[in-house]
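Input record, target 12 of the design panel.
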């Protein structure tokens, strides 16, 4: 068969040849969808291999059991801290750990003692005045009785001897004497009842003063808080992560410190919210003391906070608080509050198809990778599994031995630039994809 040269071919095709040439050129334009034929893309071969997702965390040790040291009960009003034992000090049972300022309680005691003395003085005065008044009223009643008796015995009743005016006057004198006698006895009884009421009121005031005295004495006796048993003193923190300090005002029953039991420790660590995918109770971890690096202790996640929170006020970075139960506690090395570093294993698949994150793209609402087929790359929908640091597991859509592109074939090659030219364009960056795993929180 005779060969046909290019010029003859163009003449044979006529105008159609020009159209084919344009279409052939358009196939290699960026964004045309035909850039999948590029062969200069970096690739990776998908292989079955173990996949382990580990995340770092840091925090502190704390005891699982601790005895709380609180402000003693029975003290009304605030107490001011005057002295504190050093945090972390090894204290023995009965040793003082907190002392409170006695100034306010001493003043309260003196005021109550003054009130009691005043109450007793008023009581004695009331009794003396009441006795004198009652005696005076008793004498008046006796005089009224004598007057009434005399009026009755010497009443002028004989009409032959006394005039009518004298008889009426004598009768009025008798009635008046009877009224005076009755009034004297009633006044005596009223004064007695008033005296009893006043004495009862003074007795109540005395009991109140005595109660305040007893309360102030108990408060003064409890101003020194001692350790209930041997242990290391650890002060509690408030919402600003600040422990109790000298000069702070505290209230009865408020916990200030703990004496932890060092026989069983746990670790409270913090995981970045961005690394929290897969956090769940029961996942394994290892813990190392900053003071003794190189000696890992096995642990498991025992609790995960349901909400991420910032560790510092005003910081936008959020963490999940995670409690790790240690398999073994070393009381000689482990102390409450000691800083630790932990590594949490969140996912572990013995045989997994994992690819770099930059090999996964979003196209039309679907997750795809570009698999090599011959001399081109074709989009393949995939299902994602757990992800780790820079890698993601392909749960479905690929097989071992497949070769996938690490750059987007749809974008085409980057425009060439002379070597060393300032501002030369860089290769396109693949779209960032979201982590497929979300925190599995309890």
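The sequence produced for target 12 reads:
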């Amino acid at each position: 068969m005779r060969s046909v040269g290019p010029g003859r071919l163009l003449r044979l095709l006529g105008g159609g040849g020009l159209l084919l040439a344009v279409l052939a050129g358009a196939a290699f334009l960026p964004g045309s969808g035909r850039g999948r034929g590029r062969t200069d893309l970096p690739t990776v071969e998908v292989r079955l291999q173990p996949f382990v997702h580990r995340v770092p965390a840091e925090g502190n040790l704390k005891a699982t059991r601790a005895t709380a040291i609180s402000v003693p009960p029975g003290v009304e009003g605030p107490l001011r801290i005057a002295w504190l034992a050093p945090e972390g000090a090894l204290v023995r049972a009965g040793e003082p750990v907190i002392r409170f300022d006695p100034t306010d309680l001493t003043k309260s005691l003196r005021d109550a003692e003054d009130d009691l003395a005043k109450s007793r003085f008023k009581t004695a005065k009331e009794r003396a005045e009441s006795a004198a008044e009652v005696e005076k009223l008793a004498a008046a009643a006796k005089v009224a009785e004598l007057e009434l008796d005399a009026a009755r015995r010497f009443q002028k009743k004989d009409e032959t001897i006394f005039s009518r005016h004298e008889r009426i006057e004598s009768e009025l004198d008798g009635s008046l004497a009877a009224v005076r006698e009755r009034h004297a006895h009633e006044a005596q009884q009223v004064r007695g009842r008033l005296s009893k009421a006043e004495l009862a009121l003074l007795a109540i005031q005395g009991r109140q003063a005595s109660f305040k005295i007893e309360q102030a004495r108990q408060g003064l006796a409890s101003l020194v808080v001692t350790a209930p048993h041997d242990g290391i003193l650890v002060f509690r923190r408030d919402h600003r992560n600040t422990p109790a300090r000298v000069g702070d005002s505290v209230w009865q029953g408020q916990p200030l410190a703990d004496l932890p039991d060092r026989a069983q420790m746990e670790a409270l660590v913090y995981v970045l919210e961005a690394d929290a995918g897969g956090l769940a109770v029961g996942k394994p971890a290892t813990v190392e003391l900053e003071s003794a690096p190189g000696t890992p202790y096995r642990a498991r996640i025992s609790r995960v906070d349901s909400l991420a929170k910032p560790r510092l006020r005003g910081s936008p970075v959020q963490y999940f608080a995670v409690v790790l139960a240690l398999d073994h506690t070393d009381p000689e090395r482990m102390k409450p509050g000691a800083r630790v570093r932990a590594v949490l294993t969140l996912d572990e698949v013995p045989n997994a198809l994992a690819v770099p994150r930059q090999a996964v793209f979003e196209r039309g609402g679907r997750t795809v990778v570009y698999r090599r087929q011959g001399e081109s790359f074709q989009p393949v929908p995939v299902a994602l599994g757990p992800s780790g640091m820079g890698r993601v597991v392909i749960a479905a859509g690929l097989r071992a031995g497949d070769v996938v592109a690490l750059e987007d074939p749809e974008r085409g090659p980057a425009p060439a630039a002379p070597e060393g030219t300032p501002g030369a364009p860089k290769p396109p960056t693949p779209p960032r994809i979201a982590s497929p795993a979300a925190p599995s929180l309890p």
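The domain at 56-64+261-348 is CATH 2.40.30.170 (Elongation Factor Tu (Ef-tu); domain 3).
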